[in-house]
Design a protein that fits this description.
- With 389 residues, the chain is of the alpha/beta class.
- It folds into 2 domains: 203 residues, Rossmann fold (3-Layer(aba) Sandwich); 122 residues, no CATH class.
- The chain contains 11 helices and 14 strands.
- Strands 1, 2, 3, 4, 5, 8, 9 and 10 form an 8-stranded mixed beta sheet that branches.
Length: 389
């Protein structure tokens, strides 16, 4: 339960309540806009709520389980007192994500019920409901029937809200150097008498444009510092150059065998197609993997979707593009590693001055960024609404 919170924020055009707030990735780009106040947020996980408070110190965090009716009532009461007029709801997507197990009737998919309950009781002028594209076909139980989530939303909210016509949008069309596609429902109360649609597509930003000028980094190897320096004599020099840019542009940690595979993998290619240095088991047999595993990204395209496992070389297309160089007559490729946290922030359009708490582990930072919607997607969508009102 939260402490009492009754202060009224200045009357900005939009006063936002963020549900399932994670650490506030989605709203990190819009909060500096004087026409917007991120007034309140709710997050279940204690560590994430502390992280949120560090990066959004002016937002009141109500920590707790939104499925608890008493806490939900508190959220609605506080939101009414603080004149919230926009609800941003980003329920967990693992139950329906292409990267998840996608169990039928996964209970995480039913968290949408509680977001809708808050919206119906609060009756804000606007609402944003965001999730993965799979939400369009994911089914839940509703009044004794099996319906898709969009069917459920329309049944519950059509009487009072106008939905956007097109709900699928890609991050790269919002000026984010990442291909990530999301489904976003934009709701406007019928009394407002207009429809809220996505803004015009922006110019695509490539990885070359986004991170191409950053210093190259060698990975630090799990086998130890001496082993790392033996394999990468310039490791410390590169590390120092990276630290001049940001404390978050630092070498990721990887095992030598995976690093060696990626050193022999060209830009845009997967190591599973290498003739010699391919992912293999202890007995030397090939690892059976998806064509996007162990894959380097392209310089001339945005990054692929950054998942919560973006710190693992074997995950989906998360390895730095690298650049070719010659060593002992053999063509190798630099940066045999995943993106640094600094690079990850850039391709997720998170402000580079984000006040990441010092206690947060690299694993946690990567996970919460991978689970969050790139902030510029929300920023351009909110800016479109501001222009309309």
């Amino acid at each position: 339960m939260s402490k009492n919170f009754s202060r009224i924020f200045p009357m900005a055009k939009l006063r936002i309540l963020s549900l399932f707030a994670n650490v506030g990735v989605a709203e990190s780009g819009i909060e500096k806009n004087k026409e917007v106040d991120i007034v309140m947020s709710n997050e279940l996980d204690h560590q994430r709520s502390l992280f949120y408070t560090s990066v959004h110190p002016n937002t009141f965090m109500i920590e707790g389980d939104i499925t608890n009716s008493e806490l939900r009532s508190q959220i609605v009461k506080e939101a009414k007192e603080n004149k919230i007029n926009l609800v941003l709801a980003t329920p967990p997507c693992q139950g329906m994500s292409e990267a998840g197990n996608r169990l039928q009737y996964d209970e995480r998919n039913e968290l949408i019920y509680y977001a809708v309950d808050v919206i119906k009781r609060l009756e804000p002028e606007y609402a944003v409901i965001e999730n993965v594209p799979k939400i369009l076909t994911t089914k839940i139980k509703y009044k004794g029937q099996i319906v898709t989530i969009p069917e459920y939303l329309h049944c519950e909210l059509d009487n009072n809200y106008i939905f956007n016509n097109q709900s699928l949008i890609k991050a790269m069309d919002c000026g984010v150097p990442q291909m990530r596609e999301r489904n976003i429902f934009l709701l406007v109360k019928k009394t407002q008498n207009f429809q809220w649609e996505f803004p015009e597509k922006q110019k695509i930003v490539t990885l070359q444009e986004a991170i191409g000028d950053l210093p190259s980094l060698d990975p630090i190897l799990r086998e130890g510092v001496d082993f790392t320096l033996n394999k990468f004599p310039n490791f410390l020099v590169k590390k120092e150059e990276g630290e001049k840019v940001s404390k978050w542009h630092k070498p990721p940690l990887h095992s030598w065998k995976q690093v060696e595979w990626m050193m022999h993998t060209p830009t845009g290619k997967s190591a599973i197609y290498n003739e010699v240095y391919f992912p293999q088991k202890e007995d030397g047999s090939r690892v059976v993997a998806h064509h996007n595993h162990y894959r380097r990204m392209y310089w001339d395209k945005p990054a692929r979707t950054m998942t919560q496992n973006n710190g693992v070389i074997s995950s989906l297309a998360c390895v730095h593009p690298g650049r070719p160089y010659i060593q002992n007559g053999v063509t190798l490729y630099s940066d045999p590693r995943v993106l640094s946290i600094y690079e990850l922030m850039i391709v997720s359009s998170i402000p580079i001055d984000w006040n990441i708490p010092s206690w947060a582990s690299d694993t946690m930072i990567r996970k919460v960024i991978g689970e969050g919607i790139p902030s510029k997607m929300i920023t351009v969508i909110i800016n479109k609404l501001l222009n309309m009102i």
